[in-house]
Amino acid sequence: MSELPLYLLLGVFCGVVSITLSRCTALTMDVVERLQKTTGLPMAVSPALGGLIVGLLALVYPEVLYWGFENVDILLESRPFTSGLSAPVLVQLIGVKILATSLCRAFGLVGGYYAPSLFIGAATGMAYGKFMRFTFTGSEALFHVPFLDVASPQAYGLVGMAATLAGVCKVPLTSVLLLFELTQDYRIVLPLLGAVGLSSWIASSQRFSTSSKGKLDSLEEKTSTIEEAKNVPTQTQQLTSVDSVDATAELCKLESSLCVYDVRDDNVLENLTVAETMKTRYISVSLKTPVVEALNLMLVEKQPFVMITERNKSLLGLLTVKDFQDFCKNVKSTRMQPEVDECLVSNVCGAVRCKIWSVTPQMPLTAAEKIMDSHGVDQVPVVSEHVNHQDGGILIGFVDRECITIARRALSAKEFFSFTSEIRREER
Description:
Elements: H1 4-39, H2 46-60, H3 70-76, H4 87-106, H5 114-136, H6 153-169, H7 172-183, H8 189-204, H9 210-213, H10 216-228, H11 233-254, H12 274-277, E1 284-285, H13 291-301, E2 305-309, E3 315-320, H14 321-334, H15 345-352, H16 365-375, E4 379-383, E5 395-400, H17 401-427
Parallel strand pairs: 1-2
Antiparallel strand pairs: 2-3, 4-5
Protein backbone atom coordinates (compact mmCIF):
# COMPACT_ATOMS: atom_id res chain seq x y z
CA MET A 1 0.00 0.00 0.00
CA SER A 2 1.55 3.28 -1.11
CA GLU A 3 0.12 5.36 1.74
CA LEU A 4 1.23 2.98 4.52
CA PRO A 5 3.95 5.43 5.67
CA LEU A 6 1.23 8.04 6.18
CA TYR A 7 -0.65 5.71 8.52
CA LEU A 8 2.56 4.95 10.40
CA LEU A 9 3.16 8.68 10.87
CA LEU A 10 -0.41 8.97 12.16
CA GLY A 11 0.42 6.28 14.73
CA VAL A 12 3.35 8.37 15.92
CA PHE A 13 1.12 11.42 16.36
CA CYS A 14 -1.51 9.36 18.22
CA GLY A 15 1.17 8.03 20.57
CA VAL A 16 2.29 11.56 21.38
CA VAL A 17 -1.33 12.62 21.94
CA SER A 18 -1.84 9.61 24.26
CA ILE A 19 1.16 10.59 26.37
CA THR A 20 -0.07 14.18 26.46
CA LEU A 21 -3.46 13.08 27.79
CA SER A 22 -1.94 10.87 30.50
CA ARG A 23 0.62 13.45 31.60
CA CYS A 24 -1.90 16.29 31.53
CA THR A 25 -4.30 14.29 33.70
CA ALA A 26 -1.61 13.46 36.24
CA LEU A 27 -0.41 17.09 36.34
CA THR A 28 -3.94 18.44 36.73
CA MET A 29 -4.66 16.03 39.58
CA ASP A 30 -1.52 17.21 41.40
CA VAL A 31 -2.51 20.86 40.94
CA VAL A 32 -6.06 20.28 42.17
CA GLU A 33 -4.83 18.28 45.16
CA ARG A 34 -2.48 21.09 46.16
CA LEU A 35 -5.30 23.59 45.69
CA GLN A 36 -7.53 21.58 48.01
CA LYS A 37 -4.83 21.40 50.66
CA THR A 38 -3.85 25.08 50.54
CA THR A 39 -7.36 26.56 50.31
CA GLY A 40 -9.22 23.94 52.35
CA LEU A 41 -11.64 23.33 49.50
CA PRO A 42 -14.14 20.64 50.57
CA MET A 43 -14.07 17.52 48.45
CA ALA A 44 -17.84 17.72 48.01
CA VAL A 45 -17.43 21.10 46.28
CA SER A 46 -14.72 19.91 43.89
CA PRO A 47 -17.06 18.20 41.36
CA ALA A 48 -19.23 21.31 41.17
CA LEU A 49 -16.20 23.53 40.54
CA GLY A 50 -14.89 21.13 37.90
CA GLY A 51 -18.28 21.03 36.21
CA LEU A 52 -18.38 24.83 36.15
CA ILE A 53 -14.97 25.07 34.45
CA VAL A 54 -15.83 22.38 31.88
CA GLY A 55 -19.16 24.08 31.23
CA LEU A 56 -17.42 27.36 30.47
CA LEU A 57 -15.16 25.53 28.02
CA ALA A 58 -18.24 23.96 26.41
CA LEU A 59 -19.71 27.39 25.75
CA VAL A 60 -16.91 27.93 23.23
CA TYR A 61 -16.40 24.30 22.17
CA PRO A 62 -19.69 22.43 22.71
CA GLU A 63 -18.34 19.34 20.93
CA VAL A 64 -16.20 18.43 23.97
CA LEU A 65 -19.29 17.43 25.94
CA TYR A 66 -20.41 13.81 25.88
CA TRP A 67 -23.46 13.27 23.66
CA GLY A 68 -23.17 9.54 23.40
CA PHE A 69 -21.18 9.02 20.20
CA GLU A 70 -23.04 11.67 18.24
CA ASN A 71 -20.14 14.10 18.55
CA VAL A 72 -17.76 11.43 17.20
CA ASP A 73 -20.09 11.00 14.22
CA ILE A 74 -19.91 14.75 13.67
CA LEU A 75 -16.13 14.63 13.66
CA LEU A 76 -16.13 11.74 11.17
CA GLU A 77 -18.75 13.55 9.05
CA SER A 78 -20.80 10.37 8.92
CA ARG A 79 -24.17 11.99 9.58
CA PRO A 80 -26.15 13.50 6.70
CA PHE A 81 -26.72 17.22 6.52
CA THR A 82 -23.79 17.96 8.83
CA SER A 83 -20.98 20.23 7.77
CA GLY A 84 -17.47 19.02 8.52
CA LEU A 85 -15.04 20.83 10.78
CA SER A 86 -11.85 22.34 9.43
CA ALA A 87 -8.43 20.99 10.37
CA PRO A 88 -7.54 23.99 12.62
CA VAL A 89 -10.80 23.57 14.57
CA LEU A 90 -10.15 19.84 14.96
CA VAL A 91 -6.70 20.58 16.37
CA GLN A 92 -8.24 23.01 18.84
CA LEU A 93 -10.77 20.38 19.87
CA ILE A 94 -7.95 17.94 20.61
CA GLY A 95 -6.37 20.35 23.09
CA VAL A 96 -9.66 21.41 24.68
CA LYS A 97 -10.86 17.80 25.04
CA ILE A 98 -7.59 16.80 26.73
CA LEU A 99 -7.95 19.72 29.14
CA ALA A 100 -11.63 18.97 29.83
CA THR A 101 -10.95 15.28 30.45
CA SER A 102 -8.08 16.10 32.81
CA LEU A 103 -10.23 18.55 34.76
CA CYS A 104 -13.05 16.04 35.08
CA ARG A 105 -10.73 13.37 36.43
CA ALA A 106 -8.96 15.80 38.77
CA PHE A 107 -12.12 17.29 40.29
CA GLY A 108 -13.76 13.90 40.85
CA LEU A 109 -16.39 13.91 38.14
CA VAL A 110 -17.66 10.59 36.83
CA GLY A 111 -15.89 9.55 33.66
CA GLY A 112 -13.19 7.42 32.15
CA TYR A 113 -10.76 7.29 29.27
CA TYR A 114 -12.61 5.15 26.74
CA ALA A 115 -14.97 7.69 25.15
CA PRO A 116 -12.53 10.64 25.41
CA SER A 117 -9.78 8.64 23.71
CA LEU A 118 -12.12 7.78 20.84
CA PHE A 119 -13.09 11.45 20.45
CA ILE A 120 -9.48 12.66 20.61
CA GLY A 121 -8.37 9.94 18.20
CA ALA A 122 -11.12 10.78 15.73
CA ALA A 123 -10.22 14.47 15.83
CA THR A 124 -6.51 13.66 15.43
CA GLY A 125 -7.10 11.32 12.50
CA MET A 126 -9.52 13.65 10.72
CA ALA A 127 -7.22 16.67 11.09
CA TYR A 128 -4.29 14.59 9.88
CA GLY A 129 -6.26 13.15 6.96
CA LYS A 130 -7.45 16.57 5.80
CA PHE A 131 -3.95 17.93 5.98
CA MET A 132 -2.58 14.99 3.95
CA ARG A 133 -5.25 15.39 1.26
CA PHE A 134 -4.50 19.10 1.04
CA THR A 135 -0.78 18.32 0.79
CA PHE A 136 -0.81 15.50 -1.79
CA THR A 137 -4.11 15.67 -3.73
CA GLY A 138 -6.08 18.25 -5.64
CA SER A 139 -5.15 20.89 -8.13
CA GLU A 140 -3.54 23.06 -5.43
CA ALA A 141 -1.55 20.26 -3.80
CA LEU A 142 1.79 21.20 -2.30
CA PHE A 143 3.45 18.00 -3.55
CA HIS A 144 2.40 15.90 -6.53
CA VAL A 145 3.22 12.21 -6.02
CA PRO A 146 1.70 10.20 -8.89
CA PHE A 147 1.81 6.79 -7.17
CA LEU A 148 0.41 8.06 -3.84
CA ASP A 149 -3.34 7.61 -3.43
CA VAL A 150 -4.46 9.32 -0.22
CA ALA A 151 -7.61 7.86 1.35
CA SER A 152 -10.48 9.93 2.68
CA PRO A 153 -10.07 11.72 6.03
CA GLN A 154 -12.67 9.36 7.52
CA ALA A 155 -10.28 6.42 7.05
CA TYR A 156 -7.58 8.26 8.94
CA GLY A 157 -10.13 9.24 11.57
CA LEU A 158 -11.05 5.61 12.22
CA VAL A 159 -7.42 4.52 12.43
CA GLY A 160 -6.71 7.47 14.71
CA MET A 161 -9.49 6.35 17.05
CA ALA A 162 -7.99 2.87 17.38
CA ALA A 163 -4.41 4.13 17.72
CA THR A 164 -5.28 6.64 20.44
CA LEU A 165 -7.41 4.11 22.32
CA ALA A 166 -4.48 1.68 22.23
CA GLY A 167 -2.03 4.32 23.44
CA VAL A 168 -4.16 5.65 26.27
CA CYS A 169 -5.75 2.45 27.59
CA LYS A 170 -2.89 0.08 26.64
CA VAL A 171 -5.23 -2.24 24.69
CA PRO A 172 -3.72 -2.63 21.18
CA LEU A 173 -5.38 -5.95 20.30
CA THR A 174 -8.79 -4.74 21.49
CA SER A 175 -8.41 -1.58 19.41
CA VAL A 176 -7.54 -3.53 16.26
CA LEU A 177 -10.42 -5.99 16.66
CA LEU A 178 -12.88 -3.23 17.53
CA LEU A 179 -12.12 -1.18 14.43
CA PHE A 180 -12.14 -4.23 12.18
CA GLU A 181 -15.60 -5.13 13.50
CA LEU A 182 -16.76 -1.62 12.65
CA THR A 183 -15.36 -1.51 9.12
CA GLN A 184 -15.39 -5.19 8.03
CA ASP A 185 -12.65 -4.22 5.57
CA TYR A 186 -9.50 -6.33 5.30
CA ARG A 187 -7.67 -3.57 3.47
CA ILE A 188 -7.48 -1.49 6.63
CA VAL A 189 -5.87 -4.21 8.74
CA LEU A 190 -2.25 -3.57 7.68
CA PRO A 191 -2.23 0.21 8.23
CA LEU A 192 -4.29 -0.30 11.37
CA LEU A 193 -1.75 -2.72 12.85
CA GLY A 194 1.12 -0.38 12.03
CA ALA A 195 -0.51 2.72 13.52
CA VAL A 196 -1.76 0.93 16.64
CA GLY A 197 1.60 -0.74 17.20
CA LEU A 198 3.55 2.50 16.92
CA SER A 199 1.12 4.37 19.16
CA SER A 200 1.29 1.67 21.85
CA TRP A 201 5.07 1.53 21.68
CA ILE A 202 5.48 5.29 21.98
CA ALA A 203 2.96 5.57 24.82
CA SER A 204 4.57 2.70 26.73
CA SER A 205 7.99 4.34 26.54
CA GLN A 206 6.85 6.97 29.06
CA ARG A 207 7.88 4.57 31.84
CA PHE A 208 11.45 5.66 31.05
CA SER A 209 10.64 9.27 31.92
CA THR A 210 12.99 11.49 33.88
CA SER A 211 11.06 10.85 37.09
CA SER A 212 11.75 7.13 36.90
CA LYS A 213 15.35 7.22 35.66
CA GLY A 214 16.57 7.73 39.19
CA LYS A 215 15.32 4.27 40.13
CA LEU A 216 17.11 2.39 37.37
CA ASP A 217 20.20 1.81 39.50
CA SER A 218 18.17 0.37 42.37
CA LEU A 219 16.21 -1.82 39.99
CA GLU A 220 19.43 -3.14 38.45
CA GLU A 221 20.78 -3.87 41.93
CA LYS A 222 17.65 -5.81 42.82
CA THR A 223 17.86 -7.73 39.58
CA SER A 224 21.44 -8.75 40.29
CA THR A 225 20.50 -9.73 43.83
CA ILE A 226 17.71 -11.93 42.54
CA GLU A 227 20.10 -13.53 40.08
CA GLU A 228 22.55 -14.29 42.88
CA ALA A 229 19.84 -15.70 45.12
CA LYS A 230 18.06 -17.77 42.50
CA ASN A 231 18.86 -20.95 44.41
CA VAL A 232 17.24 -19.65 47.59
CA PRO A 233 13.43 -19.68 47.18
CA THR A 234 12.62 -17.57 50.23
CA GLN A 235 14.82 -14.65 49.25
CA THR A 236 13.63 -14.76 45.65
CA GLN A 237 9.98 -14.69 46.71
CA GLN A 238 10.56 -11.73 49.00
CA LEU A 239 12.43 -9.72 46.35
CA THR A 240 9.77 -10.50 43.78
CA SER A 241 7.14 -9.16 46.17
CA VAL A 242 9.16 -5.97 46.74
CA ASP A 243 9.63 -5.50 42.99
CA SER A 244 5.89 -5.88 42.36
CA VAL A 245 5.15 -3.19 44.95
CA ASP A 246 7.73 -0.88 43.34
CA ALA A 247 6.26 -1.58 39.90
CA THR A 248 2.78 -0.67 41.17
CA ALA A 249 4.12 2.50 42.71
CA GLU A 250 5.91 3.44 39.49
CA LEU A 251 2.79 2.87 37.38
CA CYS A 252 0.72 4.98 39.74
CA LYS A 253 3.38 7.68 39.62
CA LEU A 254 3.28 7.75 35.84
CA GLU A 255 -0.52 7.61 35.66
CA SER A 256 -1.93 8.46 39.07
CA SER A 257 -5.47 8.94 37.77
CA LEU A 258 -5.77 5.19 37.16
CA CYS A 259 -4.92 4.27 40.79
CA VAL A 260 -7.64 3.62 43.32
CA TYR A 261 -5.27 4.73 46.08
CA ASP A 262 -2.08 6.76 46.24
CA VAL A 263 0.70 4.33 47.15
CA ARG A 264 3.08 7.12 48.16
CA ASP A 265 0.74 9.27 50.26
CA ASP A 266 2.45 9.56 53.66
CA ASN A 267 -0.43 11.52 55.17
CA VAL A 268 -2.51 8.39 55.70
CA LEU A 269 0.23 6.92 57.94
CA GLU A 270 0.62 9.88 60.29
CA ASN A 271 -1.74 8.48 62.93
CA LEU A 272 -0.53 4.88 62.71
CA THR A 273 1.99 3.36 65.10
CA VAL A 274 4.31 0.42 64.63
CA ALA A 275 2.27 -1.64 67.09
CA GLU A 276 -0.79 -1.47 64.82
CA THR A 277 0.97 -2.90 61.78
CA MET A 278 3.83 -5.10 63.01
CA LYS A 279 4.02 -8.87 62.63
CA THR A 280 4.57 -11.00 65.72
CA ARG A 281 5.58 -14.26 64.05
CA TYR A 282 9.30 -14.37 63.41
CA ILE A 283 12.36 -16.63 63.48
CA SER A 284 14.87 -16.19 66.29
CA VAL A 285 18.17 -17.96 66.86
CA SER A 286 21.13 -17.56 69.18
CA LEU A 287 24.74 -16.83 68.35
CA LYS A 288 25.58 -20.49 68.93
CA THR A 289 23.00 -21.76 66.43
CA PRO A 290 24.56 -23.55 63.43
CA VAL A 291 24.23 -21.66 60.15
CA VAL A 292 22.63 -24.65 58.43
CA GLU A 293 19.92 -24.80 61.09
CA ALA A 294 19.21 -21.06 60.74
CA LEU A 295 18.90 -21.37 56.96
CA ASN A 296 16.58 -24.37 57.32
CA LEU A 297 14.32 -22.35 59.63
CA MET A 298 14.22 -19.51 57.11
CA LEU A 299 13.35 -21.96 54.35
CA VAL A 300 10.54 -23.58 56.35
CA GLU A 301 9.00 -20.29 57.55
CA LYS A 302 9.47 -18.57 54.16
CA GLN A 303 11.22 -15.57 55.71
CA PRO A 304 14.34 -13.99 54.18
CA PHE A 305 15.84 -12.98 57.53
CA VAL A 306 16.43 -14.29 61.04
CA MET A 307 16.53 -12.49 64.41
CA ILE A 308 19.43 -13.09 66.76
CA THR A 309 18.49 -13.02 70.44
CA GLU A 310 19.83 -13.98 73.84
CA ARG A 311 18.12 -16.36 76.23
CA ASN A 312 15.95 -13.58 77.67
CA LYS A 313 14.80 -12.62 74.12
CA SER A 314 16.98 -9.50 74.10
CA LEU A 315 17.75 -8.47 70.54
CA LEU A 316 21.32 -8.79 69.35
CA GLY A 317 20.85 -8.21 65.64
CA LEU A 318 19.33 -9.36 62.35
CA LEU A 319 20.75 -11.35 59.44
CA THR A 320 19.30 -11.66 55.95
CA VAL A 321 19.87 -14.26 53.27
CA LYS A 322 22.14 -11.79 51.50
CA ASP A 323 24.29 -11.56 54.63
CA PHE A 324 24.76 -15.33 54.56
CA GLN A 325 25.65 -15.15 50.87
CA ASP A 326 28.22 -12.40 51.53
CA PHE A 327 29.71 -14.53 54.27
CA CYS A 328 30.05 -17.46 51.85
CA LYS A 329 31.82 -15.20 49.34
CA ASN A 330 34.23 -13.96 52.01
CA VAL A 331 35.00 -17.52 53.05
CA LYS A 332 35.73 -18.54 49.46
CA SER A 333 37.93 -15.50 48.81
CA THR A 334 40.04 -16.12 51.92
CA ARG A 335 40.18 -19.88 51.24
CA MET A 336 39.26 -20.53 54.86
CA GLN A 337 36.40 -22.99 54.61
CA PRO A 338 35.42 -24.28 58.06
CA GLU A 339 33.43 -27.43 58.56
CA VAL A 340 29.74 -26.96 57.82
CA ASP A 341 28.68 -28.29 61.20
CA GLU A 342 31.15 -25.97 62.99
CA CYS A 343 29.96 -22.77 61.26
CA LEU A 344 27.79 -20.81 63.69
CA VAL A 345 25.69 -17.67 63.45
CA SER A 346 28.32 -15.87 65.52
CA ASN A 347 30.83 -16.43 62.69
CA VAL A 348 28.49 -14.73 60.23
CA CYS A 349 27.90 -11.80 62.58
CA GLY A 350 31.63 -11.38 63.05
CA ALA A 351 32.24 -11.31 59.29
CA VAL A 352 29.35 -9.21 57.94
CA ARG A 353 28.20 -7.38 61.12
CA CYS A 354 24.63 -7.97 62.24
CA LYS A 355 22.11 -5.22 61.63
CA ILE A 356 21.11 -3.69 64.97
CA TRP A 357 18.61 -1.01 63.95
CA SER A 358 15.26 -1.38 65.70
CA VAL A 359 12.01 0.46 66.43
CA THR A 360 9.56 0.51 69.32
CA PRO A 361 5.80 -0.23 69.28
CA GLN A 362 4.73 3.35 69.98
CA MET A 363 6.93 4.83 67.27
CA PRO A 364 5.04 6.35 64.27
CA LEU A 365 4.99 4.10 61.24
CA THR A 366 6.40 6.92 59.11
CA ALA A 367 9.46 7.04 61.36
CA ALA A 368 9.99 3.29 60.91
CA GLU A 369 9.79 3.73 57.14
CA LYS A 370 12.38 6.53 57.26
CA ILE A 371 14.73 4.28 59.26
CA MET A 372 14.41 1.56 56.61
CA ASP A 373 15.01 4.08 53.83
CA SER A 374 18.05 5.63 55.49
CA HIS A 375 19.75 2.26 56.11
CA GLY A 376 18.60 0.60 52.89
CA VAL A 377 16.81 -2.32 54.57
CA ASP A 378 13.38 -3.86 54.00
CA GLN A 379 12.58 -4.81 57.60
CA VAL A 380 13.45 -3.73 61.14
CA PRO A 381 12.86 -5.54 64.45
CA VAL A 382 10.36 -4.20 66.97
CA VAL A 383 11.60 -4.23 70.57
CA SER A 384 10.20 -3.12 73.88
CA GLU A 385 11.34 0.14 75.42
CA HIS A 386 15.05 0.07 76.23
CA VAL A 387 15.77 -0.67 79.86
CA ASN A 388 19.31 0.69 79.63
CA HIS A 389 21.84 1.56 76.98
CA GLN A 390 23.41 -1.89 77.08
CA ASP A 391 20.15 -3.72 76.57
CA GLY A 392 18.84 -3.90 73.01
CA GLY A 393 15.29 -4.43 74.21
CA ILE A 394 13.06 -7.48 74.30
CA LEU A 395 12.15 -8.63 70.79
CA ILE A 396 8.39 -8.67 70.21
CA GLY A 397 8.04 -8.63 66.40
CA PHE A 398 9.11 -6.86 63.22
CA VAL A 399 7.78 -4.44 60.63
CA ASP A 400 8.65 -4.58 56.91
CA ARG A 401 7.75 -2.92 53.63
CA GLU A 402 4.80 -5.24 53.16
CA CYS A 403 3.30 -4.13 56.49
CA ILE A 404 3.55 -0.49 55.45
CA THR A 405 2.07 -1.14 52.01
CA ILE A 406 -0.88 -3.09 53.45
CA ALA A 407 -1.52 -0.37 56.03
CA ARG A 408 -1.42 2.37 53.41
CA ARG A 409 -3.79 0.54 51.07
CA ALA A 410 -6.23 -0.42 53.83
CA LEU A 411 -6.38 3.12 55.21
CA SER A 412 -6.84 4.66 51.78
CA ALA A 413 -9.68 2.26 50.99
CA LYS A 414 -11.23 2.91 54.41
CA GLU A 415 -11.15 6.67 53.88
CA PHE A 416 -12.67 6.26 50.44
CA PHE A 417 -15.61 4.21 51.70
CA SER A 418 -16.09 6.48 54.72
CA PHE A 419 -16.27 9.51 52.44
CA THR A 420 -18.72 7.73 50.12
CA SER A 421 -20.96 6.77 53.06
CA GLU A 422 -20.90 10.36 54.34
CA ILE A 423 -21.93 11.70 50.93
CA ARG A 424 -24.84 9.22 50.75
CA ARG A 425 -26.04 10.19 54.23
CA GLU A 426 -26.00 13.86 53.25
CA GLU A 427 -27.99 13.09 50.11
CA ARG A 428 -30.65 11.29 52.19
